[in-house]
Amino acid sequence: MASSIRPTLSLFNPSPRLSFSHFSTVVPQSKSFALKACRMFRKNGNSVRVMASGNVSSSLTASSPENVLEWVKQDKRRMLHVVYRVGDLDRTIKFYTECLGMKLLRKRDIPEEKYTNAFLGYGPEDSHFVIELTYNYGVEKYDIGTGFGHFGIAVDDIIKTVELIRVKGGKISREPGPVKGGKTVIAFIEDPDGYKFELLERGPTPEPLCQVMLRVGDLNRSIEFYEKAFGMELLRTRDNPENKYTIAMLGYGPEDKTTVLELTYNYGVTEYDKGNAYAQIAIGTDDVYKTAEAIKLSTGKVTREPGPLPGINTKITACLDPDGWKTLIMGASLYMG
Hints:
Number of strands: 18
Structural class: alpha+beta
Radius of gyration: 20 Å
Mean pLDDT: 84
Pathway: Secondary metabolite metabolism; methylglyoxal degradation; (R)-lactate from methylglyoxal: step 1/2
Helix content: 10-25%
Distance between the termini: 50 Å
Function: Catalyzes the conversion of hemimercaptal, formed from methylglyoxal and glutathione, to S-lactoylglutathione.
GO cellular component, one term: cytoplasm
Shape: globular
Pfam family, one: Glyoxalase
EC number: 4.4.1.5
């Protein structure tokens, strides 16, 4: 855990544009995302019609708060990707592919907006949780802050993985060994930008990119928000009074088969500096309109009202959780009436 906690800062963007996933209105970038998103989830029974005037209507208008929150539990959701910024895209791609075994799925340069991003992971975007790296022209360093924790990666042989990372010049911040009070063998490493990765030794898993850890100021409040607004299931909690922290694992499936969100509460710490490096998680939904309503009913703040992106049919909404962590919600169906 971070030893020093600085005052919370707003997420600063040193470049005018980051990417579609940062709510840019760049249409060319959005189109490729929309095509992939449409294959991620099936259309549900709630119709949304785009009127000639451009206004969007939805069956949501007739829904009660109780119905909306109940619908969230039935929505077919999946964690899609996590977005963060790096100072040297090629260097990071090389580290992730050679040391962590990821594959470069695609790379996209937007010179008119002065950024490039790359998608990496352990399988196709339409079935796996992936990483979206963003490089803003001329920006070589970002502040990770004290709020972001780490990413988790499941590996078959942790000793072999750590030694490979060491040979490649990676930083080992915790040598392999059993977790305190448990049997799982873990290690911690850092990538070239200082992002921490927890390596967990596990057997074969369909989703090696298995965790995103964020620190929060009120664990119960955060659990309630992610359950109500995003329909996540609380998988387990673990209190560690010796080290003065408590964690909660939430997600859409078992920890050994899907990516989960790990929330950490450090005793007595209510605010964190989020820096300007980590951006957000993206989640897929069948209905961005109902999702936005659920967010409003769950102490979240909608920062981008639900609706279609200009020029394409993919619909999105965006929000902040009670601690100010950003989430992008993407609809996968065309919803055209």
